[in-house]
TrEMBL record:
Residues 232-380 form the Acyl-CoA dehydrogenase/oxidase C-terminal domain. One of its GO terms (molecular function) is oxidoreductase activity. Residues 126-220 form the Acyl-CoA oxidase/dehydrogenase middle domain. Its cofactor is FAD. The keyword Oxidoreductase applies. Residues 9-121 form the Acyl-CoA dehydrogenase/oxidase N-terminal domain. This is Acyl-CoA dehydrogenase family protein. Keywords: FAD, Flavoprotein, Oxidoreductase. The keyword Membrane does not apply. Belongs to the acyl-CoA dehydrogenase family. Its EC number is 1.-.-.-. Transmembrane segments: none annotated.
Length: 385
């Protein structure tokens, strides 16, 4: 955006500069290899952790930063998803969507010993909510936990779990009570629990350098302390946690749009057709006006939401609406970016080609566009008035 943001601060500028330096020097040169390898080396988890980005909102005694800042959370999301392969953000990010519930709900001893290892990138954690039978209707989850003796027995399965093959700890949603949202609790499950197995997800359209897993719980034995947070009150914690995941996906979509914009612009300034550079054809120039407007709108919306969060609010309806608008804008931008590149966009290795393959995971993951609109309507109290 050409007009300055009223929300930019010297601290944030410095943070963004630091992020850019890191991604330019340590991530971007290796992305092609990591995508081909279908993996990011584990030391990158630690290098990303060194930026402090897994410690927002967590006290220092648990390995966190001791402060929170929604703008900086978003700045990281923009950089990590927009680096050229948004799967990189997912590869190191299974922990970021599970750290929230762990830091709020896990037993004190766990927060003092294991959580710092996760925040420092030395150990992996993942969030396991989606099931083979459905992800959108969280209140209908079928995985069940039952008390047995001094512990719990878990039965069921989870699908598409990011970081699921490498993580040591899982935040798992399971039914402990009756039907509906009031019967769900959260459990902290260690990977070597008896009765727990995992299998990698098949070949994916995108996010190649990240891994996802199916988790299987067959009479999985858990200690009493595995239940985190109050019994049958897990649904609210899951919903609260989704807000931060969605914030990062809005910011991520923004970063991916900027990547499309800058790479297509470089191309349009270089490529000549009919005796002129592409950018000199009005039809092509107008595409940039449209893309740029969408980038500006998403950025402004995102900053407004970040400001509200920093004031102590959690504007769930705005986050839901913004996620839909961000992924719709991303879809438009990737499509127009492909048109601008022409045939070159159809070749693997073109930056916009990869974004095009990554659009749908942003539009479906973390709450699909349909479900986000539904949530916004409910949060705004529009239905039933
Ligand atoms: C690469 C990847 C990584 C993921 N990582 C994780 C993870 O780490 N942890 C995790 O728990 N989950 C993860 N997910 C799962 C993701 O959050 C779900 O895919 C998503 O929530 C949608 O659930 P579903 O796929 O079961 O679709 P379904 O719920 O079966 O829905 C199918 C379609 O129907 C639409 N739909 C459903 N209900 C309605 C309705 N009432 N009205 C209108 N339309 C409706 C949906 O919007 C969707 O388009 C991941 C998914 C992918 C692809």
């Amino acid at each position: 955006m050409t007009c300055p943001s009223p929300f930019m601060t010297p601290e944030r500028e410095a943070f963004r500069t630091n992020l850019n330096r890191f991604f330019d020097s340590e991530v971007k040169p290796n992305l092609e290899k990591w995508e081909a390898d279908r993996a990011v080396p584990w030391e990158m988890h630690e290098r990303v952790a060194d930026l402090g980005v897994f410690g927002f909102g967590i006290p220092e005694e648990y390995g966190g930063l001791g402060f929170d800042d929604a703008f900086m959370r978003a700045d990281y999301g923009e950089a990590a998803f927009g680096c050229g392969a948004s799967g990189f953000a997912a590869a190191v990010g299974g922990r970021s969507i599970s750290i929230g519930p762990i830091s709020r709900l896990a037993p004190e001893n766990f927060k003092r010993t294991v959580l710092p290892e996760i925040i420092a990138g030395r150990m992996g954690s993942a969030l396991a909510i989606t099931e083979p039978g459905g992800g959108s209707d969280v209140s209908n989850m079928a995985t069940r936990a039952e008390r047995k003796g001094k512990g719990w027995v878990l039965n069921g399965a989870k699908a598409y779990i990011t970081g699921g093959m490498e993580a040591q700890w899982f935040v798992v949603g399971a039914r402990t009570g009756g039907a509906g949202l009031a019967g769900i609790s959260l459990f902290l499950v260690e990977a070597d629990s008896p009765g727990f197995t995992r299998t990698p997800l098949g070949n994916k359209q995108g996010w190649h350098c990240s891994e996802q897993a199916m988790l299987h719980f067959d009479d999985c034995q858990l200690p009493d302390t595995a239940l985190i947070g109050p019994e049958n009150k897990g649904f609210l914690a899951i919903m609260n946690n989704f807000n931060y995941e969605r914030l990062s996906m809005i910011a991520g979509s923004l970063g991916m749009m900027k990547l499309c914009y800058t790479s297509a612009l470089d191309w349009a300034r270089e490529r000549r057709t009919f005796g002129q550079r592409l950018i000199e054809h009005q039809v092509i120039a107008h595409k940039f006006a449209e893309i740029s407007a969408r980038i500006d709108m998403i950025e402004a919306y995102l900053e407004r939401i970040c400001w509200a969060i920093n004031q102590g609010a959690m504007p769930a309806a705005e986050i839901a609406k913004a996620k839909v608008q961000a992924t719709k804008a991303l879809e438009f931008t990737a499509s127009e970016g492909m048109q601008i590149f022409g045939g070159a966009s159809y070749l693997v290795g073109n930056p916009v080609e990869r974004v095009w393959r990554e659009v749908k995971v942003m539009a479906i993951g973390g709450g699909s566009e349909e479900i986000m609109r539904d949530l916004a309507v409910r949060q705004m109290g529009l239905a039933g008035q």
